[in-house]
Amino acid sequence: MPKRGDIEKILIIGSGPIVIGQACEFDYSGTQACKALRSLGYTIVLVNSNPATIMTDPEMADVTYIEPLNVEMLEMIIEKERPDALLPNLGGQTGLNLSAELYKKGVLEKYGVQIIGVQADAIERGEDRIAFKEAMNKLGIPMPKSEPAYSVQEAEAIAERIGFPMVIRPAYTMGGTGGGLVYNLEELRVIVSRGLSASLVGQVLVEESVLGWEELELEVVRDSKGKMITVCFIENVDAMGVHTGDSFCVAPMLTISRELQDLLQKYAYSIVESIGVIGGTNVQFAHDPATGRVVIVEINPRTSRSSALASKATGFPIAHVSSLLACGLTLDEIPYWRDGALDKYTPCGDYVVVKFPRWGFEKFEGVQDRLGTQMRSVGEAMSIGKSYKEALHKAIRSMETGRYGLGFARDFNGRGLDELMAMLGDATSERQFIMYEALRKGADIDTLSERTHIKRWFIEQMKELVDLEEEILSLGSGEIPEELLRRAKRDGFSDQYLSRITGKTEGHIRARRLSFGIRQAWDAIPVSGVENASYYYSTYTGEDRVGVSDRRKIMVLGGGPNRIGQGIEFDYCCVHAAFTLRDLGYESIMVNCNPETVSTDYDTSDKLYFDPLTVEEVLSIYEKEKPEGVIVQFGGQTPLNIAGELLREGVRIIGTTPDSIDLAEDRDRFRTVIERLGIPQPRSGMASTLAQALSIGEEIGYPLIVRPSYVLGGRAMEIIHYPEMLKQYMEAAVEVSPERPILIDKFLENAIEAEADAICDGENAFVPAVMEHIELAGIHSGDSACVIPPVSIPEKGIWTIEDYTRRIAVELDVIGLMNIQYAIVGETVYILEANPRASRTVPLVSKVCNIPMAKIATRVMLGTKIRDLGLKSARIRHFGVKESVFPFNMFAEVDPVLGPEMRSTGEVLGLSDNFGLAFYKAEAAAQQILPMRGTVLITVNKNDRPQALEVARELSGLGFGIMTTDGTGRFMAENGLDSTVVMKLHQGRPNIIDHIKNNEIQLIINSPQGRQSEHDDSYIRKAAIRYRIPYITTMAAAMAAVKSIYAREHGHLDVRSLQSYHAEQPS
């Protein structure tokens, strides 16, 4: 069947910002869809609020809208663009939910837009828990006992019938948001209340618990003829009770019988056929190994996190194929490397894939490291090996946690067996590492299996690794014999881990291995659905089956798994490097291990090695491919961590040298350079001991801002107000980076923060823009709202920042990208830090200013001079406001207050000709929809009361009622402003929480002060999240919100494409 001729223009809705449960896998799937549909000749209109993704680059779609993802904005875009069709199932849960809303509200019918790929009623059958249950009952497919509830009281009545424990599953959510496993009535009330709030339709399913059963997934693709294929069978190693996004899993299924797999496929095909999805569907089952009972858990009638994993695990680009199928093609018309066409596709391959999640618990003080049915991981890595053991080891060293094997993590090796077994009572992010040490201490395999619900086979495999490691340890300081070393390498033990357990250097282990001829080989994963494409993985088993070309080559090192502080922005830079290298005639070679990203798509680079970013793997690929050099500055901290060692091994680093990067991190060397340039900087020092730290603190004066050296995302950064806090910090912080000193700076209070990016060729530097932080100094730049161009920095300050940035970039001999952060106090501009590498601001600046920074920087790194590129600074006529998005809804126990350590998972962008409207759009895109009327609760610390008074007066003038607590209220009354004073939680009833529950508060402005106040007031901020009330914790953001509300009230909210903003910029 040829492509559909009745449609010309297709609307694709993206997934919005990176959040827990919905990450960059949708950047990957949306980008594939844009490429696939444009290749068929369709005009693509893309809507997404996320500036950090490749998807929202102006070249990816014909028309790109970076706008809030809500019905109001989507209707405006549809009215303006008049698309013929909407493809709803490539934008995650966000895209699916919005498509369903647009359908139900009649917007699609009003403008003649048809849904393709998955119909609106199919979305309801897949996402609405009642409709799904009815569909399954008709098909005779067993489900856990369950009933829907629309209130806590209904849920309590259902609990009496089903019995505890139970699972609460909110409808129309992703990542298990709002749900959970409950064991008693009290937990039921809390989780159901949370789930009803999270659900788009106020519905939860109260379901029989299948805790401990096997969790099994199938990725199924169906075409318009009804032909179905199973792309991938995925086995979760962690049992039911741990969300699939937090579960360690494998493909293909390693312990599941062929008969059971056939039964699961039969059920899955019946479900997908009845729902009528055209394209990909994820189907999840639970299987009780004791009784053989199988139940359907849920389906996702869209591309999902598992779809991205399945795509990369098999070489089957599900989003690409789904897009083609949605537009009329059928599986028998799409090529398949093995058997002609995809209608004959079956999963194959002599390799094992392991996915391992990456968590960010260390970023959230007070969070419990406990895994359940609500997802908490922030990223993942995928590894490929010839055996489960090899793939497992590769997955562990892909995680970027400083661990290169399963043993000797934290202090687990020093604990007794009973203590280790007790620690395995709850599923945690450390469970595999605890199990490893428990096996070393003699734990019984059956007992471990009963305790963790992990199948015996996987534990047996781990026990074999423990036994091999113990054999190596028994050698003491002796050399590892050849046969034992071969076994260790086949089982995935890395050179780095072997060096740690033997006390020898990694170089020594590598040399000994090579002396025996033990070298990595490589194998290919062919790509289905396209002609002549593959990507590659390393193994110590088998022959090398991958050839090399004699073309000019450059390697690009990716960023590894997503984590807080290092997100999709760095993948964006790596992808642009690959595109630019191809344009310049080089063969681009990508190395990365993140299955969610565009950099690991089959057609981003000329050659993709899907491997860990370690010295061992990168050096082997470098020696095999013999490129002219390696780009390390685009992948964040990951490649920078190994750049020095690569350089010592003879690898040529393209662009800024590791020494220049190190100079910017070495505070003493950097201070000397800045002093020589005559640029102001806060007083600072470096301390390796507590005594040194206290001495520096006394010398430069409190407050201080302290952090370890060589980290991203402000990890372990803290503002210190007095010596006792410094003592507490030193005791904990040295563990973060033990080889590096602690950096101590004078904290500049009430300073305006700003930053600038630059592209430099070593002789000249170009500064595209200066970005102003809306929050004042003390909030991590990754968490602060920002605006381009600045709105309160005078022209002289902007000129000074641009001048300092150019001079520093040239002085540091930067070749490529650089980001510098500043603080402005009065008329003095202080430099805070410089990062001679790509930063998370690159895609933001690129889109707001229409300057493709990563592309230009790649050309510069390869020798092009700034003066030859014709770059010109131009004052843009619109405003771009970036707002950060946080995962506090997933961490109910954490106080959602901002500070110098980064905690956001993603970001959104608001664009408008007016700053206030741009800020309003950014807040709306971050799901912080500012109210136009109602009551504002203001309760702030003493220092913030003067600014809060100004904010209150403005809000009162806009018609808002003002509610305060006693201290804030007295201050306002003394200054002539009336407010309604309410009680705090400890003062009686009705209190703040009562007013929140009664919907009497529409906006909360609350700033904590000091640890005691943070503890006292955290319930206000937690309640704001729970009851979905927009909240603000800084006065600078509060004032910006006032301007935003005023602009929304008096201005015109419209939508404009990114291409139209760029077209009006002066040349």
Describe the protein's architecture and organization.
- The chain is α/β, with parallel strands linked by helices and 1067 residues long.
- The protein is 37% helix and 20% strand.
- The chain has 36 helices and 42 strands.
- Strand 24, helix 22 and strand 25 form a beta-alpha-beta unit.
- Helix 25 packs antiparallel against helix 26.
- It is globular, with a radius of gyration of 28 Å.
- The mean pLDDT is 91.
Quick summary of this structure?
It contains 36 helices and 42 strands. With 1067 residues, it is α/β, with parallel strands linked by helices. Strands 30, 31, 32, 33, 34, 35, 36 and 37 form an 8-stranded antiparallel beta sheet that branches. The protein has a 7-stranded antiparallel beta sheet with strand order 14-13-10-11-12-17-18, with helices on both faces. A 5-stranded parallel beta sheet has the order 3-2-1-4-5, with helices on both faces.
